[in-house]
Specification:
Layout (H helix, E strand, L loop, with lengths): L1 E2 L4 H14 L5 E4 L6 H14 L2 E4 L3 H10 L7 H20 L10 H6 L20 H10 L4 H4 L13 H5 L3 H8 L6 H13 L1 H4 L4 E3 L2 E3 L4
Parallel strand pairs: 1-2, 2-3
Antiparallel strand pairs: 4-5
Length: 219
């Protein structure tokens, strides 16, 4: 099972899962949280295209109640935005009932830490985790996904007008070029290096403490 957002990554992950397990084994849940109507349209269209089970859980009221209960009305936009994928992952595991939760993150985002810890970065399996964004698009075309899904501007839908590349400040093409040792403009290179450095904690095992001090989980 997986969260279906209407975007490319979740559509490709859903298609791969249906291909591997059979469409009757896949449950896709669309979880709007003050989301755009286009997200619902595209999510339901992908589910119908693949012939998989599809449900909707509106998290808008839950999100509003949580913000109010925690008195976070004055919190930063990023703090509030990060609450949404964590709520969504809670829903996915509530519905899992023995199913594996399929993550939808790609390699480009993994390398620079463009994910929410304990949110979209949490899952039981990550089938796209070693595919750059352009490779995900190519796979989507191979799997016969609708052209509109493949060509849609990548966005986590965290706020009105938000795009992934706009928020990151670099393009997906620059991320791949940088990590493959290809020429990248100095500003993008510095931005990518900074994102990678500041997000190392997202890729490292959880450290623990014993008599010897702080140790990583694989020490």
């Amino acid at each position: 099972m997986l969260g279906l957002s209407g975007g490319l990554d979740s559509a490709v992950a859903a298609a791969l899962t249906a291909h591997a397990l059979g469409r009757e084994s896949v449950l896709a849940i669309y979880m709007p949280c003050h989301s755009l109507d286009a997200d619902r349209r595209d999510a339901s269209a992908v589910a119908a295209h693949l012939g998989i089970e599809y449900r909707e859980v509106d998290l808008g009221p839950v999100f509003d109640d949580l913000v109010g209960a925690c008195r976070l009305d004055g919190a930063s936009r990023l703090t509030l935005a990060n609450m949404k994928p964590r709520l969504r992952m809670t829903v996915l595991y509530a519905f899992s009932s023995g199913r594996l939760v399929v993550g939808t993150g790609n390699y480009s985002e993994y390398l620079v830490g463009y994910s929410t810890k304990w949110g979209d970065a949490a899952a039981d399996i990550m089938p796209l985790a070693r595919l750059y964004k352009d490779e995900v698009a190519a796979l989507g075309r191979e799997l016969g996904l609708p052209r509109g899904i493949i060509e849609r501007v990548p966005s986590a839908g965290l706020w009105e007008g938000q795009s992934d590349e706009g928020e990151m400040g670099v393009t997906y093409a620059s991320i791949r070029a940088c990590f493959e040792g290809q020429p990248v403009d100095p500003e993008s290179s510095a931005r990518i290096a900074a994102m990678k450095g500041s997000s190392e904690h997202k890729r490292a095992p959880i450290p623990y403490f014993d008599a010897r001090g702080w140790l990583s989980a694989n020490a």
